[in-house]
Amino acid sequence: xxxxxxxxxxxxxxxxxxxxxxxxxxxxxxxxxxxxxxxxxxxxxxxxxxxxxxxxxxxxxxxxxxxxxxxxxxxxxxxxxxxxxxxxxxxxxxxxxxxxxxxxxxxxxxxxxxxxxxxxxxxxxxxxxxxxxxxxxxxxxxxxxxxxxxxxx
Length: 153
What we know:
- This protein is mostly helical.
- The protein has five helices and no strands.
């Protein structure tokens, strides 16, 4: 992506993970894992918008690891205690990576379309400049012909 800044995207994505954990951790006992998983998709999207596909995928994978450690029992480890949690984690990884990749791809397309628009505008300006130059040359030719006619009489 032309306007993508992978480091900035990674900082945004990881910052969004930290904010999500700060907001959700005090509510961990009052919410289910689906809420945390859904919120933790957002960092990958934010990273995709600001940093492109690589930042998005890294942020999505970090979100999944954080989800496992912070929101799945046993807390504080990468071990998964319940089979249902494996499904939760798998779905989070799939949704986060796919969503972040789609957002990054669309941002790439938008940037390419903006570049093409700029190229069309520049080509149109060049076409108008050349048309004005052709008109000026034509008028100069007509003036020259008129002058030569008036001198020859």
